[in-house]
Fold this sequence. Notes:
Number of strands of chain B: 5
CATH architecture of the domain at 119-345 in chain B: Orthogonal Bundle
Oligomer: heterodimer
Strand content of chain A: 15-25%
Radius of gyration of chain B: 26 Å
CATH architecture of the domain at 304-525 in chain A: Roll
Helix content of chain A: 25-40%
Low-confidence stretches of chain A: 12-25, 556-561
Order of helices and strands of chain B: HHHHEHEEHHHHEEHHHHHH
Amino acid sequence: MLRQFCAYLMAVLLITAGCTATDNALEDGNAKVFRYNQAEGLSSLDPAFARNQANVWAITNLYSGLFELSPDMYPIPDMVDSWEVSEDGGTYTFNLKKGIRFHDSEVFEGGKGREVTAEDFEYSFKRLLDPATASTGAWIFNDKVKKNEAGDGFAENWVEATDKYTLVLRLEKPFGPFLEILTMPYTFAVPKEAVEKWGKDFRKHPVGTGPFQLKSWDEGNSLIMVKNPNYWKDDANGQQLPYLDAVMVSFIQDRNQELLTFQQGKLDFMSGVEANSIDLILDKDGAVKEEIKGKFVVQKVPYLNTEYIGFQLDPSVYKGANHPILNKDFRKAMNYAINREEMLKYLFNNLGTPGKGGIIPPAIKYFKENTVKGYTYDPAKAEELLKTAGYPGGKGLPTIKLNTTVQSKPMVEYLQKQWGAVGIPVEIEINQTATHQELIDNSRANFFRGSWLGDYPDAENYLAMFYSKYFSPAGPNKTHFNNSEFDKLYEKARYESEGFNRLDLYHKMDQIIMEEAPVIVLFYDEVVRLTQNNVTGLEPNPMNVLDLERASFVDGEVIQE
Amino acid sequence: MLRFIAKRLGYGFLVLLGVVGVVFFLFHALPGDPVAMMAGQRTDVATRQAIEKELGLDQPLAVQFYLYLKDLSPLSIHEDTAEEQEKYSYIPLLSLGEDEVLVLKGPYLRRSFQTNKKVGEILLDNLEATLWLALAAMVFATFFGVIFGMLAALSQNTFWDHFLVIISVLGISIPSFVSAIIIAMVFGYYLSDYTGLNLTGQLWVNHPIYGRTLHIENLILPAFTLGLRPLSIITQLTRSSMLEVLSQDYIRTARAKGLQYYKVIVKHALKNALNPVVTAVSGWLASLMAGAFFVEYIFDWKGLGFVTLKAVQSLDFPVVMGATLFIALIFVLVNIVVDIFYALLDPRVHLS
């Protein structure tokens, strides 16, 4: 009986393994298949939920929007042919390219992809703001687009398709970096037919205009995208894009395991290396290790990311009004007491740039490390400032509790020693990510580890962290920094459409942040990308977006396991 | 008999109700804000409110609990609209007044906060991997456990006996997350060139060219790790029960009438010695499914345990709740089935 059962089981296993193997193979044995891994796991393929890197990567390859970012972070036209901004900066008129079609899909009549029109954008943008969608991206338009007369909702015509290829978008007040907003995957075009057919399950039935279309998504295991045969873009030689035939995404969640798999040649690309395996790639000076050179390509570019430690500045959370954190000199002393260069060298193999400038990272155009004057290592000055603050040599200081997650533990322990050296007692509390975030959002952490990853490449996105109307939990101002001069400049910069005037305001604001020291800027991160030697057409970029439109393999030769 | 089953089902229902209550209130006492986990670092009031409403977190806790129970209950009253119909896919039974209707439906486990996927689908998708893992671990443990136990009993008080007993004590006492890490590192990393095994991997691998293929080798390490504890226990159980049987009179009789040693051991001794082992094994599958949490997490095995742990980390309440309920349900059902089987197999057991 048992023997029979076992034999039966084996037979079933063999048969299923045997038939499925050939079921849906690409006919051509020489297909170019690009393989990457997604450690954080993918939660949705719906552009309205493009809220993390994993989602953004997949969605960027499946969909497209009005604008895209060039490798040096300028918004350049994608599906838009030409556009106009009204004199007052409040109305945008976009003329769309003609003849672009959605992926072929059963949701369209005859299964053939329908042409994209201005109405699709109107629908997609309105869908983003509709509370019923509950999109995580509604904030990008909420406080920017035109309100109705009563002011309790959006104007009927805030976005409007005036004819088949013309889209008009009206803002309440001009917003400088609005085109940058329109490069975000939240704004990508989705067809009404698909959203209505699939409802909430549209998340796994994407129909877009991107270079690839979905073949299968076995959640948590694999995502397979194949070339969109009707993609509308050609390269300079007139050859149709994309070059790749398929993209295969795996979901190994452990970063070290991912690196190992890459080294075995089973992935074509990976981005980001864990702190504890950085030694395998870079030597202590940040150069690529000798034994790695030639095996695969290592690329580094500045990342749109600032690592910092924040102070809670809301006096109401402290018992007395004299808590040292509320004292500017004390905060400055903490800034001067730490050696950022040494920290980067010993803990991160010099990956990243010391945070000696402002909160805005050098990955943003026109922000070099020295544009804004921040803090350097100067223990003498730190001691002097402590004295001015009324705590000579740290006398009379309560123990300051630093909240962090386990990932930053080595770093904060290093900083703890340096603060200790000038007499500032710091204790460390480690929490789970969810708890950590909640403590910060609800002002229950007085001194906390944070990092800000830019949503779009404009300094405004960083400075919003200090605007007094954006207090957490709903807004990004987690330190509850409140400075009327800063607020004035921020409002002015938002409505300033001329790039260089805006830049000047940004510099001033960043300088105020440094002077008031609501945060300790630690370092500006760098993107590390590893690619196999035969991969071409992949440019690293400060947003760390993976756009496979032009990726290919040398000689078209691929070794598949 | 029927009365017994009905009674046990009633108790089981109460257990499940208790599980729902405890997990629901425990979860809401946890620190952390599910809305913030969704909305991320940059958001605004309107966005947060829309998400909060979508997740049903804008209601008072008691109302939330009531609504959750209502979603679970197979009999409930809903507004009769197309939306509700799509959400619950119910069968209307009785119209109550204007547009309200009493309906019959499958328990609705809601959608994941994080991914918006139906929790029922998530559980079903990941159940397969867990089942295979638990089954493989059990087969491995039973097969080798019986052999080792038999060997130990036959060579009682020799070196091998002591060796196997010590090893099995170790196997019982070592926690699975410790053994999982050691086994993964040794066989999946340091020795991976020789074993050909990966640190992690799935049973099924999708490939654009080769399609969906089966990778049995990825099952080996996690199943081995998960099977260690049952293996040890089965070894000890078999050993002691074998020793007991071997000292019985009928074994001596069998030997005395000239039967071969081998036949006596296999046909007479082992067959009777296996009774307690079979009992242990049958009750085990359910607990293995629950015990696979750490093993699945460390080996990146995308099963029920893996999904549940991820959901706890990201405060994905519906998934945590759904998975807990599902496992509780399996426990309750398996216990009832085992009780009934006892009664059927052993006339000395009376149902009461």
